[in-house]
Amino acid sequence: MASSITLIKMPEVVLNKIMNESDLKSILILRKVCHSLRTFVDTHDSGPNLIDLNIYIKPNEIEAWYYTRNGLHVVHYRGRNQENNCVFLHENKEKVLRDMNFVDAFLLDLEIFISLQNSVMRQFRVTRGNADPFQTVKDVNLSLFNRILKALENVLKKRPRPLQTNEIHLAVEDQEQVLSILKSIDAKVLKNLSIYSNLKEEEELEINEIIQMDHWKQAKFLMVEDFILDVPVECLIQFSFVRAVLKTISTKDLMVSKENILQSSIFKEFSLTYTQLEDESEISSVLGEPIITTDIFGRQDFKWIIDSPVNCQKVEITHFQTHRQFKITNIESLEDKVKRMAQERS
Predict the structure, then answer these.
(1) Is residue 339 part of a domain?
(2) Fewer CB within a 10 Å sphere, N or C end of the chain?
């Protein structure tokens, strides 16, 4: 009787063919079969390319969303009580990896997929939690988060070329953590830069080095949440969309914003919350007399509509005084919107 041939005993040319035809789900399974197959997968130079990679870090779990052309695969890496075992959950199927911490198991998978990635991703995210409305910043395991960011930095450094992604979303404690990741991201294809805070209180984020990077100059969408930026609005005018909290907004900031935004062909919307508003009494001298609206609670909003000299569009500036926020929006007519969408499709 002929002896049975196991997968690991197959010729390397056959295993290479299997790898080239495997999707991400199959690769995840192969890596969990045995040490020999994991080593083979990790040293193979091709595999499925990710479209999105979203990593959500929880106190005792890492949830990874791997999205490829074959679909979305959500994988949970969980710690198991006090044991040094990892629970690997994928498509409601649970596998226990003995003598392996859940963080180590995740990092092994992360390294192989990052190293195999050779196309432009749509989105790359490393943030806390998931879409859980009850989770707060206080629920974040900062030592775990910092360990993963440091491991990610090292994995990215090993790549022969910068990782390419249109969007990057990072939860951090300070500027250094942002820099450590951005240095290994290709600025030429970056469109969206989103930064979230892992701190317990809303604190200032130094960005003096970030604003000097090509990534800052190249991106068109900026979102900074739960941080306060101590920068003039002038540092933001190259973006088409901004959502952030500024330490101070002055009359000079509004004047610079007005002049630059009216000349911009890419501007869409700025939502700028402030902690301090300087020279509030002089705003009308810069923007003109406002349209004042009052809600049923007696709260007043101030609105200005300004014609753009560059095109037929209008810019609407609204001061939500109660919320300490300026919202600046490009008002696009239906006809102009249809023309723009037609041009974008062509």
Answers:
(1) yes
(2) N
